[in-house]
């Protein structure tokens, strides 16, 4: 369970790092990532002997949380905006609904790709219903999909 939260922070950290890199300051990403790595290594040395695999997961969580917070501060300083609380709440609600569905359904390993695709569609649908994903967002997504794909699936 600890590792799930660690990967959640890692996901946000990765998104924020891409924003920082896209803003033309990859050295900041390097510094934050390096500090996160040192934090993870030191906390692993401390917590793995005490807690075993849970210690490794906790180390991952702490390092990724630090990286996420540091990257969020840098993005906010650069662009004076991060992510509205309303958007975070809507995304969390949609994610929680999918989490509950995933816990209730058993899917054989061979069907996992199909399962992931269906859940992705449900997730986007939930975001559209909650007005987090707008027509403008869908037009933007369509604009980055290669033309030959959009013609094949009639987008």
SSE map:
Elements: H1 2-22, H2 26-51, H3 53-79, H4 85-104, H5 112-129, H6 135-144, H7 147-152
Helix pairs in contact: 1-2, 1-3, 2-3, 4-5
Explain what you see:
The protein contains 7 helices and no strands. It has helices spanning 2-22, 26-51, 53-79, 85-104, 112-129, 135-144, 147-152. It is globular, with a radius of gyration of 19 Å. The termini are far apart. The model has no long low-confidence stretch (mean pLDDT 87).
Helix proportion of residues, in percent? over 70%
Report, as a whole number of angstroms, the end-to-end distance: 39 Å
Which shape, going by the Cα principal axes?
globular
Radius of gyration: 19 Å
Average pLDDT figure: 87
| Uncertain spans | none
Q: Helix tally?
A: 7
Structural class: mainly alpha
Q: What is the percentage of strand-forming residues?
A: under 5%
């Amino acid at each position: 369970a600890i590792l799930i939260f660690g990967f959640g922070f890692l996901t946000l950290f990765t998104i924020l790092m891409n924003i920082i890199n896209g803003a033309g300051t990859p050295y900041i990403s390097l510094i934050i990532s390096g500090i996160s790595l040192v934090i993870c290594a030191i906390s692993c040395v401390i917590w793995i002997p005490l807690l075993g695999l849970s210690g490794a997961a906790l180390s991952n969580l702490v390092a990724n949380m630090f990286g996420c917070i540091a990257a969020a501060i840098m993005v906010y300083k650069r662009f004076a905006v991060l992510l509205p609380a309303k958007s975070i709440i809507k995304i969390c609600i949609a994610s929680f609904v999918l989490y509950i569905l995933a816990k209730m359904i058993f899917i054989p390993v061979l069907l996992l790709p199909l399962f992931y695709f269906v859940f992705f569609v449900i997730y986007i649908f939930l975001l559209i219903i909650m007005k987090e994903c707008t027509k403008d967002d869908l037009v933007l997504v369509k604009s980055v999909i290669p033309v030959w794909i959009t013609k094949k699936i009639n987008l």
